[in-house]
Amino acid sequence: WYAFGWTLFILLQGEQGNRRIHTSGRVVLLPPADDLKAIAVARAKSNYRAAGPGAALQSQVLDLVAGLVVESSADRLTANQLRAAPVLAEALETADAMIAASNEKKLQSSRDGCLQTLFCCRLGRSNQDLE
């Protein structure tokens, strides 16, 4: 969860508040060296911005990040706490629906394959004979 928290932070902040490293001809963004201080600064910036679109969402994501990047793994947010976070609700509902649809498709394909195999066995043919 620690890495997920820093990934969210980097995505949210971009170059602002993160370290920019040049290596092997590429530019890579890394989390800030002083993680808790950087989150506090980013949260403060979020609070003082004009209440334009996205300010409340950014504040919620920063709260989530703060719970994920705690040094002690025992103090970090758990999977259940993440699933309960309002900021992730819509994304998790979409992901759950996609997984359910994929599982149903796999299940139907498996059922079709089993029925086809059973049918072929009864007729003494191979599945390839039907195709």
Characterize the structure shown.
The structure is a single chain. With 131 residues, this protein is mainly α. The chain has six helices and two strands; from the N terminus they run H-E-E-H-H-H-H-H. The protein has helices spanning 2-13, 35-48, 55-68, 79-84, 89-123, 127-130, and strands spanning 19-23, 26-30. Strands 1-2 form a two-stranded antiparallel ribbon. A hairpin with a 2-residue loop joins strand 1 and strand 2 (26-30). Helix 1 runs antiparallel to helix 3 (55-68) and helix 2 (35-48) runs antiparallel to helix 3 (55-68). It starts with a helix and ends with a helix.
What characteristics describe this protein?
131 residues; mainly alpha; two-stranded antiparallel sheet; 6 helices; 2 strands; elongated
The order of strands across the largest sheet is 1-2
> What is the 3D shape?
elongated
Computed structural class:
mainly alpha
Q: Give the beta-strand count.
A: 2
pLDDT < 50 stretches: none
Biggest sheet overview: 2 strands, antiparallel
| Number of helical regions | 6
SSE string, helices as H and strands as E: HEEHHHHH
Query: Strand-residue fraction?
Result: 5-15%
From the alpha-carbon coordinates, what is the Rg to the nearest angstrom?
24 Å
Which oligomeric form is depicted? Answer: single chain
Helix content: 55-70%
- Determine the N-to-C terminus distance: 47 Å
Secondary-structure topology with pairs:
Elements: H1 2-13, E1 19-23, E2 26-30, H2 35-48, H3 55-68, H4 79-84, H5 89-123, H6 127-130
Antiparallel strand pairs: 1-2
